[in-house]
Amino acid sequence: MAALASDLFSTSAKAADAPAGPTPFDNSTVAQIARKLAASPYSGPDQSLPKAIDNLNFDQFRSIDYRPDQALWHGQNLAFDVEFFPRGFLYRPRIEIFEVTDGKSALVPYNPDLFSYGDPMLRVTDNLGFAGLRLRYAINTPGIMEECAVFLGASYFRAVAKNQNYGLSARGFADGTGDPKGEEFALFRSFWLEKPQPGVDSIVIHALLDSPSVAGAFRFTIRPGETTVFDVQSTFFPRVKMEESGIAPLTGMFYFDSNDRNHIDDWRPAAHDSEALQIWTGSDQELYRPLRNPLDLQFSAFTDVSPRGFGLMQRRRSFHDFEDLALNYEKRPSLWIEPIGDWGTGAVDLVEIPTPNEVNDNIVSFWRPETPLEAGHEYSYTYRMYWGWDTPFPTKLARVGATRIGAVTDHKDDRFFAIDFAGGPVANTGPDAKFHLIPQASAGTIRNVVVEPNPNINGWRTTFEFAPGNVKLAELSAVLANDQGPVSERWVYRWTP
Predict the structure, then answer these.
(1) Is the dihedral of CA 118, 121, 122, 126 positive or negative?
(2) Is 258 exposed, middle or buried (0-12, 13-18, 19+ CB in 10 A)?
(3) In 239-378, which ranges are E strands?
(4) 258 near 404, Cβ under 8 Å?
């Protein structure tokens, strides 16, 4: 394996350094490569491109299509095949991709005729290599191969469940997200694709992560379906001390919804990939934090020990929640992270970045370990990712159905909150049921609390007024309760003007 690491990732890091023939490969190979990389100064992959494609725009890049009949494993009666992306536009680095068969890895060869070209002038004969990959599987219709996961750009990847459209993304690692000094984006610079056996509906993909600060090894076991599940094993080898590391980062877009549409003039009810951050804490609390598109960058941290899970969730599943025929936000996946093993003490961080449109990803969440990652050490994190319609676990609690915020009549600086709760112990309860809301605010005043049945959702509506006074930020929370105690997940919210 040491020879493989030396050959693949010498100082030049060019394709010509890759072994010409099959090379031994096992589950320890990528970790050995990452460990060796971390012991040397960072040297990124080749980003040079021929003049004809050096400045591709989005439309030109999209006009270069991989030919489906050239997919890896096409026509071999396997559950998966793989297509590859060309280099260019935002995706300049050359990403080496290997096929693993019977314990041997071999470079997937590049050929310009693997692609079709909308503009023949974009076809160049140089050995360009690939920018990333798309995984295909008969996820919706038996016998019809469709894209179900993509790895493309930095360490970004995304997936869908059955009958879903792409929405939020995940990353291999985050470093310095939200820091005014800037964020460092690690890169998946190589992939190893294990050829699946006939009749097997899962696939294993290995990835090598690299950046100036850290190298890492990933093993993804992917099972597409009603919920698409990724089992992730990751190991990190820092080159430097890292105090702002992010494990299992999630990235999405929140433009507006009924809780936050200030300064937005739009005909639709809402536009977002995800509507809330949900957390199941190590102490068994279930938190629900609606997202915002703030005027100023907001950074929130939910301190925890041994978290049970967290995710960016999309609960609105009706077309009428968005009314968008083209973008189908109601079909975009929620993504839940389930830690495997004890992740210790740290925090689920949430970064909300102002955005003037729905083009930009402006929401990031991840696990931040309390203790910095030290250079020369190794850190392993195992987790399961659920791309689907909801969280993978049932709950006995009532859940937040909607958060709506508006002005208070005759008090223009105050805000009116309406929070709906549905399911669990509040379902199928009549008007004689006894529930009350327990609201809290870190600053300002909460008044005029009302709790009443909402038969339209077979649940309950709670409302209150919030008077911020002179403060510019307040942390709000609320839980629905009966005489025995809380019956709902805890709604939490950051108010800013």
Answers:
(1) positive
(2) middle
(3) 245-252, 254-256, 271-272, 276-280, 286-290, 298-305, 309-313, 334-340, 345-352, 363-369
(4) yes
* Cα 400–Cα 403–Cα 404 angle in degrees, nearest 5: 155
Q: What are the start-end ranges of the H helices in 347-419?
A: none
Q: Compute the chain's Rg from CA coordinates.
A: 24
Under a CB-based contact definition with an 8 Å cutoff, are residues 455 and 480 in contact? no
Distance in angstroms between the alpha carbons of the first and the last residue of the chain: 57
Cα(83)–Cα(80) distance, integer angstroms: 10
CA distance 310 to 280: 6
Residue with tokens 């090598």: 208
Read off the amino acid at residue 45.
Answer: P
**279 within 8 A of 318, measured Cβ to Cβ:** no
| Residue 4 identity (one-letter amino acid) | L
For residue range 55-70, what is the model confidence (pLDDT) as tens digits? 999 999 999 999 999 9
What residues does 72 pair with on adjacent strands?
Answer: 82
Q: Answer yes or no: are the C-beta atoms of 42 and 211 closer than 8 Å.
A: yes
CA distance 148 to 224: 7
pLDDT digits (tens, 9 = 90+) for 242-299: 999 999 999 999 999 999 998 899 999 999 999 999 999 999 999 999 999 999 999 9
Beta bridge partners of 297: none
| 123-152 as b/e: b if 16+ CB within 10 A | eeeeebbbbbbbbbbebeeeeebeebbbbb
Q: How would you class 295 by CB atoms within 10 Å of its CB: exposed for 0-12, middle for 13-18, buried for 19 or more?
A: exposed
Residues 6+ apart with CB under 8 A from 434: 482, 483
